[in-house]
Amino acid sequence: MDMTNEQYYDLIRPYEDARRLLETRLEILNHSLYGSRAVCGPIHNMQNRIKAKKSIEDKLRRLGQRDSVSNARDYLQDIAGIRVICYFVDDIYNVAAGLKRQSDLVLVKERDYIATPKPNGYRSYHIVMGAPVYCLDAMEYFPVEVQFRTMSMDFWASMEHRICYKKNPEHRERLEQEFLTYAAVLKEIEEKFEEYRERRENGWPPEEAD
Ligand code: 0O2
């Protein structure tokens, strides 16, 4: 039997609290990680979402579970999600390390699809962090999935999500090949921007005479 709306809102409330807590920590890291005098923090923008009722029910069914509140708590770690879009790949690892160092948070899961991209070309760094939520006389950890991407990773993943991911598009094989090529091109562009940053920080080499 589906969850009632009331059960759904009761279910998501502590996940919203956990998501807010992590988002605040990320905002603080953004303006403190590189020092208060830094021209620019590591984060370009953040998005967040709480999984919709139907998506929770569908996912539980896919997992072969009844869509009850307790199954959602036991089996889903992505009810609360934050997507953090950074400028550079090392910003991603720096922000993630800053979060993982915080002793009141627990690292529940880590998937590094930047070091090891998925076969379809997907690149992103995912961690699930347990955040403490206090009620009157008890504390419980609630998981929040944080996906870190650069702008180019996010561009690719958003288009792929729309066109291919969990879909059955026409000419699937051709599309998959094309997406793999785009992933490689975007990675190359990302590396070019990293070079510019290094040159800006370490000085540009003298221009070659004709
Ligand atoms: P949606 O529609 O974005 O919510 P999990 O499904 O989380 O239990 P897993 O495999 O450990 O299991 O999760 P993983 O690999 O960390 O992926 C979680 C999320 O990353 C996905 O959520 C997507 O948002 C994103 N993702 C993973 N692989 C791909 C990919 O190939 N393409 C794109 N565009 N996004 C991807 P959901 O719930 O699957 O989907």
Walk me through the topology.
Elements: H1 5-32, E1 43-50, H2 53-62, H3 69-75, E2 80-86, H4 89-100, E3 106-112, E4 125-134, E5 139-150, H5 151-163, H6 172-202
Parallel strand pairs: 2-5
Antiparallel strand pairs: 1-2, 3-4, 4-5
Helix pairs in contact: 5-6
The chain binds ligand 0O2.
Overview of this protein structure:
The protein is 48% helix and 21% strand. The chain is of the alpha+beta class and 210 residues long. It has one domain: Beta Polymerase, domain 2, CATH 3.30.460. It has a five-stranded mixed beta sheet with strand order 1-2-5-4-3. The chain starts with a helix and ends in an 8-residue tail after the last helix. The mean pLDDT is 93. Bound molecules: ligand 0O2.
Helix content: 40-55%
Strand order of the largest sheet: 1-2-5-4-3
Count of folded domains: 1
What are the segments in which pLDDT stays under 50 over at least 5 consecutive residues? none
Number of helices: 6
Q: What is the chain-wise order of helices and strands?
A: HEHHEHEEEHH
Radius of gyration: 20 Å
Q: Which second-level CATH architecture applies?
A: 2-Layer Sandwich
The ligands found in this model are:
ligand 0O2
InterPro entries: GTP_Pyrophosphokinase, NT_sf, RelA_SpoT
Pathway: Purine metabolism; ppGpp biosynthesis; ppGpp from GTP: step 1/2
Keywords: Kinase, Transferase
GO molecular function: kinase activity
Essential attributes:
single chain; 210 residues; alpha+beta; flat; binds ligand 0O2; Putative GTP pyrophosphokinase; kinase; kinase activity; transferase
